[in-house]
Write a structure and sequence with these properties.
about 35% helix; 11 helices
């Protein structure tokens, strides 16, 4: 048995070739040439961690120097965030803070400051880890993921919700270049009390001060985050709205796919905890007083 001092050691990193493309076209050419033997890194946290276990790609394509994959800009009614933008850059960006302040607040609580300064928004999604928290945010916001096909250079937008439902590996979609988030009056709330095991993000839209539509995503229970609408209906006009929302939260979690038994051997408990997290998030959103 290897000691913990040796496990994940730099001494176990296999030999590899580092490629540092300066343009999107150069990155695509690398990925096409080396195909399954290449991995993309931006901040590099996840790829390098895997390499320290002795497993790793023969070719590493570092995209941090590609200008097209940086920056935050307003495009029509969307804010477009480059895939190589770090969490720290996103949380402090003036455009995000002014137009999507709850997104900046959400990102500011990811990991610790070292992780936020190094990790990237796109890398968090493409790492495809069950407990990572950018994808559930994007599901609630109904964001679009913009992928470039390395073979053709064509860029196509994929709904984050379609991405989350797909059974294929994240990298099969292509090279993630940016994320588009529509501007909306949605209020965001979240509950991270049990992360990394579980976390929940909810969004509520309102009219004349009344919540009229909502949806939530839960992370940590499935291979990828899962989103579903919350049918508020006329429940808030019930004689006991608190009880109505508690029942709604229970029904919401019961309607989700079965939790991954490898991570959660007790799906009944997992659903009950998810219902409590949703109920508390809805209370924080002002759905009930």
């Amino acid at each position: 048995m290897q000691s913990l001092a040796v496990h994940r050691s730099r001494k176990l990193v296999p030999e590899f070739v580092l490629h540092r493309p300066r343009t999107l076209a150069q990155a695509c050419a690398c990925l096409c040439e080396y195909r399954d033997g290449a991995a993309v890194i931006a901040g590099g946290i996840d790829v390098i961690s895997r390499m320290k276990t002795g497993a790793g790609p023969a070719h590493v394509v570092a995209i941090a120097e590609i200008a097209e994959m940086h920056g935050v800009r307003l495009v029509g009614d969307c804010i477009e965030i480059g895939a190589a933008v770090t969490h720290r850059a996103a949380e402090t960006d003036d455009l995000i803070r002014s137009r999507l302040p709850s997104v900046a607040d959400y990102v500011s609580a990811l990991g610790n400051i070292r992780i936020r300064c190094q990790g990237t928004v796109g890398g968090n999604v493409m790492a495809d880890e069950p407990g990572y928290e950018i994808l559930p945010l994007l599901l609630v916001l109904d964001a679009a993921l913009n992928f470039c096909d390395p073979a053709t250079g064509a860029v196509r937008a994929i709904s984050a919700r379609d991405f989350a439902r797909a059974e294929t590996a994240a990298r099969s979609f292509g090279l993630l270049t940016s994320i588009s988030v529509r501007l909306s009056p949605m209020s965001l709330v979240w509950n991270r009390d049990l992360r990394p095991m579980m976390a929940l993000v909810a969004g509520v839209n309102g009219s004349n001060g009344r919540p009229v539509a909502a949806g939530a995503a839960i992370v940590g229970l499935h291979r990828r985050a899962v989103w579903a609408p919350i049918p508020l209906g006329d429940r808030l006009a019930a004689p006991d709205p608190h009880a109505a929302v508690a029942t709604l939260a229970q029904h919401w979690t019961e309607g989700l796919p079965s939790p991954d038994l490898a991570a959660h051997p007790n799906p009944v408990y997992a659903r009950r905890v998810g219902a409590v997290m949703l109920r508390r998030a809805l209370a924080d959103a002002g759905v009930v007083a």
